[in-house]
Write a structure and sequence with these properties.
The protein is mainly alpha-helical. The chain has three domains: 141 residues, Alpha Horseshoe (MgtE N-terminal fold); 111 residues, Roll (CBS-domain), CATH 3.10.580; 173 residues, Tetracycline Repressor, domain 2, CATH 1.10.357. 66% of the residues lie in helices and 6% in strands. 33% of the residues are buried.
Length: 465
């Protein structure tokens, strides 16, 4: 078994060494040496422990988590992704040790873990927790609200205190340094009235009152504020933490930048999954049912779209039977339009999510995307028309194909803006269905335009009697 100090040193050097440790841990578990595996794991930093635990197979994971002390488990829980916590903890840790671990974790982390469990399991664990009251308060908030994300470990300093007294209160509070980036000032009714940096408190004159040098322009959020809005506020104002208040402006907790980084990652991942018709619970090595649950309905929607496109093609069967080359260009025109539409909707959905644009910017976005579609459409249409001309030497066919390509790209650009904005207006997440709607619209309209024009000028094509 590797020396613990040596393991820690190696782990800090490169990811390859972590993989070697992972293999060594699996080997110890296979040989029944769970304590040896835990000793190696404890030689790593907490984030690396969490990463390694998440990548282990179920047997190795159970063996290690079953031997970890509660304080070690608490550290790992704070660095695991939310979706990993539920999978990793299921049946791997007994109730008493998990309760002790959640007592040692940050309250918002403990609440997240319990939120992912069934009500009987969560109730049983909370009955054994010392911090049950604090964590229970956080569970009253929805998972997407600021209240569920905040840490109630926040120090409110009375505005009537002088600097020397306030500094003594800070030192004796016992709060973790993570929550001392900013200090918050409250009045006698616990209402938030100001904030100040710890450095301001240290350098202030001993007898100076906090109300004399605190910053009274405090950016705060309500407990019910959406967590995405919290992330945007912290980015806009370059904050390291944001206080959470109730409707009476009483200080309830604090959200730190570390919490919001995770929120930003989760929201970006969620939008990415939704754009392709799946969900964050769909894991490549996870249970099969969540993948079926979230993927199959969208496959059915796409199947309906393809069937509709096939019916459109069937309406023009006489024209295709007279000139089979028309069928060759169908996937080219449809495929290019689909790609252009998805490109546009991805940019628009991301901008809407980050509030870089709103519905009021619809006209500007539409004009820009149409200009982009026109320039790209002309270039693509010319290239495709020239290929068709050199292949078939048919001016009419080349012209129809070029015009159809241009029109399809214009439709893709327009729908790529209008569909997500329309979904936003009717309170539907644009990331949920935009891509499928856009490909359906561009496919159907593009096919009708292409085959309709081809049918209209069919008698002019070469090779048609």
């Amino acid at each position: 078994m590797a020396d613990v100090a040596g393991v820690a040193q190696i782990a800090g050097n490169d990811l390859g060494s972590i993989s070697a440790i992972q293999r060594s841990i699996k080997r110890d578990v296979k040989q029944g040496d769970s304590l040896g595996a835990v000793a190696q794991l404890e030689g790593l930093a907490a984030p690396e422990q969490a990463h390694l635990i998440a990548d282990l197979d179920e047997r190795s994971r159970r063996a290690i988590l079953g031997s970890l002390p509660p304080e070690g488990l608490a550290q790992i829980l704070q660095h695991l992704r939310d979706d990993h916590r539920e999978v990793i903890l299921t049946g791997a840790v007994d109730v008493d040790r998990l309760a002790a671990a959640l007592d040692g974790a940050l309250p918002n982390v403990a609440a997240d873990v319990l939120r992912g469990m069934s009500l009987p399991e969560a109730t049983e664990i909370m009955a054994r927790m010392r911090n049950a009251a604090i964590v229970g308060d956080l569970l009253t908030y929805r998972a997407d609200e600021a209240g569920s994300l905040m840490t109630p470990e926040v120090l409110g300093l009375r505005d009537s205190l002088n600097a020397a007294h306030a500094l003594q209160v800070v030192k004796s509070s016992g709060y973790r340094p993570r929550f001392m980036h900013n200090l918050f000032v409250i009045d006698r009714d616990s209402r938030l009235v100001g904030r100040l940096e710890l450095s301001d408190l240290i350098v202030a004159a001993s007898n100076a009152k906090l109300s004399d040098f605190m910053d009274t322009e405090v950016v705060s959020v309500l407990t019910g504020t959406d967590k995405e809005e919290c992330a945007r506020l912290m980015e806009r104002y370059q904050l390291r933490s944001v206080p959470v208040v109730d409707t009476e402006r009483r200080l309830q907790g604090v959200i730190t930048v570390e919490d919001l980084v995770k929120v930003a990652e989760e929201e970006a991942t969620e939008d990415m999954y939704r754009l392709v018709g799946t969900d964050g619970q769909d894991r490549p090595i996870g249970p099969l049912w969540p993948s079926i649950k979230y993927r199959f309905p969208w496959l059915m929607v796409q199947l309906a779209s393809v069937i509709a496109a096939g019916m459109v093609v069937g309406l023009f069967e006489p024209a295709i039977s007279k000139l089979a080359i028309l069928a060759v260009f169908i996937p080219i025109i449809v495929g290019q339009a689909d790609i252009a539409g998805v490109q546009t909707v991805t940019v628009v959905v991301r901008s809407l999510a980050l509030q870089e644009v709103t519905s009021r910017d619809a006209r500007r976005m539409m004009l820009r995307e149409l200009a982009l579609a026109l320039s790209q459409g002309i270039a693509t249409a010319l290239i495709l028309s020239l290929i068709c001309w050199f292949w078939r030497e048919d001016a009419y066919l080349s012209t129809i194909i070029g015009l159809s390509m241009l029109l399809s790209l214009l439709i893709a650009g327009a729908t790529g803006v209008l569909v997500p904005l329309g979904l936003k207006v009717v309170k539907v997440d644009p990331a949920t269905a935009s891509a499928v709607i856009i490909t359906t619209i561009t496919d159907l309209i593009g096919l009708v335009a292409y085959l309709g024009m081809a049918t209209l000028f069919l008698s002019y094509f070469r090779g048609v009697g």
